[in-house]
Amino acid sequence: MRTIAVLNQKGGVGKTTTVTNTAAALARMGARVLAIDLDPQAHLTIHLGVEPDSAGPGAYEILTQSADIKDAIRQVRDNLCLIPTNVNLVGAESELVSVVGREVILSEAVETVEDRFDYLFIDCPPSLGLLTLNALAAVKEVLIPLQPHFLALQGFGKLLQTVEIVSRRINPGLKVSGVLLCMYDSRALLPSEVKADIEQFLREARGTRSAWSEARIIPRLIRRNIKLAEAPSYGKTIFEYEPGCNGAEDYAAVAQYLHKQTLTAAGLPADEIEAVIARMGELGLQSDSRFAEAFVRGKAARFGASRLRNELARRGIERELIDEALAGECTESEIERARSVLHGRFREAPTDAREWARQARFLQTRGFAPDLIRKLLKEPYDESA
Ligand SMILES: Nc1ncnc2c1ncn2[C@@H]1O[C@H](COP(=O)(O)OP(=O)(O)OP(=O)(O)O)[C@@H](O)[C@H]1O
Ligand SMILES: [Mg+2]
Asked: Whose CA is nearest to atom 13 of ligand 1?
């Protein structure tokens, strides 16, 4: 599970908007996502359409250890779960004052559900108190949204220092992975200057041991877009509220960028997987990153083309589309497998057209692709018989 705290102690910079829509975009791509609302204002909870006071156990109950994290997780969309919050959370900080290890309560809880999700996003409050410490202890990465105006970098040093302290004392390996420029207005002069300043600042840290030495400005900016400001009051993500707007486009691109990083870090060919997802889109299939990963992995060996074919058929995808999607995908190992299946049933190579059709049909019912069957049954048989 990739774990990301979205943090900036400055208020109103786009933290909650970023968590909501990035999490939603990844979930729509097929990743399993958990979002935690760690801000007593409960904006994330509301933005995802959950009424904070009706929400049952949430972040407060986890931190005060009065509920198990599993009971606080609510599914709010396909592939997207939320740990909601309510105003009780304000009290958590003082209630926990005498609890030993109070910074790592969330981290310990999150570990127990690690297997259930591909991504965790934590929406932090605009402060650097105990709630934020719990977020920083529970993740490996910090994503900092910035609004590029002239005070953008004020407080930036303090923010990085906090991350640094947590990485030294509580959570070794914690890194600032990215800075996301939000509410970007390209017509204003200042944003590009602020951007250049941040770039320079981050460049200077490269190769040092600081917690932000690998941080990058995310190459996709979030443009100022009124639809992003309207969506929360309807309890909708931008993809539900106005799927064609700039805001939806920008957050989808950020999610794709993050997912590409995830794949690359796992040693998977991100470009190839992206191409499969794009192809699924062209064929009118629901894009599904997990499936595309399995598909590309399969080409590498394990998940054979015939299993993919069965899997696609199970999802109700038409045969023609499957053939098209899998065209040219029969690998040598797949042919080898088909050959041994065939030889388990037929000892002789087909000598006439009828026999050929019989064997071809047999392979087809076993899920092998027409292309592959033609390739296999055309080969001289005595070689391998
Ligand atoms: N790109 C954008 N264009 C226009 N409005 C935006 C954009 N991003 C966020 N907003 C709006 O700006 C306001 C602040 O954004 P958001 O709530 O995401 O910030 P935040 O950092 O979470 O704030 P807080 O510190 O209070 O938690 C919200 O009303 C939000 O809808
Ligand atoms: Mg917020």
From this structure: 12
